[in-house]
Amino acid sequence: MKKPILTVIFFVLFLVGCGIESNRFSGESDNWKGEYATNIDGTSENGVYTFGFKNATNATTFKNLEIAINDGEIHEREEEHKGATVKIPTSCSGCAVTPENETIKVTIKWNDKNEETFFLE
Q1: pLDDT for 58
Q2: How many domains does the chain have?
Q3: N or C: where does the chain have the smaller number of CB atoms within 10 Å of the terminal CB?
């Protein structure tokens, strides 16, 4: 009796998990590492971009930090950012979701004199 119930429970859990796709993109430049982790369910997408400065110290601070993703499709700007990590959450519903073979262009400018471009794949 227990075997059919366990089989049904396993099958239901399997079907529920099949609708959500998780993707992870990563890349780096000389000074930055980046990642985009996303969950896609049909035409909905929830994710987070995480960027970390490689040469960080406990006192890392950036002036005029700008991050442009896909030529400004997503744009983050802070006059002063304390810490070596920047997180940018994303969410959309009824949108064109990010395909798993996408290449994401990232340009980061900081301290009014530094700029690097790299790709998340």
Answers
A1: 85
A2: 1
A3: N
